[in-house]
Design goal:
It is a single chain. Helix 4 packs across helix 5. Strand 1 and strand 2 form a beta hairpin. With 310 residues, the chain is an alpha/beta fold. The chain has two domains: 219 residues, Rossmann fold; 74 residues, 2-Layer Sandwich (Alpha-Beta Plaits). The longest helix has 16 residues.
Amino acid sequence: MPRVGAPVVQTRDLTVQYPRVRALDALSVDVPAGVTGIVGVNGAGKSTLIKVLLGLLAPTAGEARVLDMDTRTHGAAIRAVVGYMPEHDALPPDVSAAEFVLHMAQVSGLPRTDARERTADVLRHVGLAEERHRPIGGYSTGMRQRVKLAQAIVHDPRLVLLDEPTNGLDPRSRDDMLDLISRIGHDFGISVIVTSHLLGELERTADHVVVIDSGRLLRASATTDLTQTTGTVLVEVLGPYGSDRRVGQALLDRGIQAAPDGDRIRVRIDDPRALDVVRDVVTDLGLGLVRVQEIHHTLEEVFEATGGAR
């Protein structure tokens, strides 16, 4: 049993060498409880890492531990308490979601009665309660992804590994999937590791982000640390047409960097007292101050800064 506060995943100098490519290269990282995004371009080593964590692929060198269990010697025990949603679709088309998830629950060791209850619960949680008896072959891509997610959590795992869960989804279905992932991690208390090559979706879902490229660790940090403030704010004012330009010019006259940004003003804040100046300028001009919003770095910017962009 891992100690309280221990990482759910630890790797030390983890290396996987294929005949012509090194998929993981001396990767050392601790993944805390919560929702963690593993981000990297295609071929960065994300799927290989998941296979190692499930005990399905032996590392060439180094080690990996999941819930304080060694993946080389405790693969079966790890898979008993970890859920897995694969990237690729391998769902049987001629059975219903209810039948498939029930089967997976029983394979995971749940008695039939408990498995039926859990199946009904998770299919409701993923939004398939009304469609659960239809054959999977007639499902949309988004519905099939929900089935894959349901089978990954039906046995109430302590950790779930989601490999590119938003692949092939339209924007609305992607948003729905990200909301489900957030609920699993924050409402159900199940730690989540989710891989993606889309940085923006991890920014809104993950508590922590691990950035890898060519099998190497580029950065691992809390999302809030990565997306720290830029020292710039957007100011929105209420007034007649051209009010934003008047405010921007007044700030420039007072030695504060300001530039138009649509119908708002982008203001550089090098000193907290500059915020008082913004407020005073708006008041002096007889305008209303609607909003002052901090601008944060995006994960895309962080990724490019660490040299991981392609």
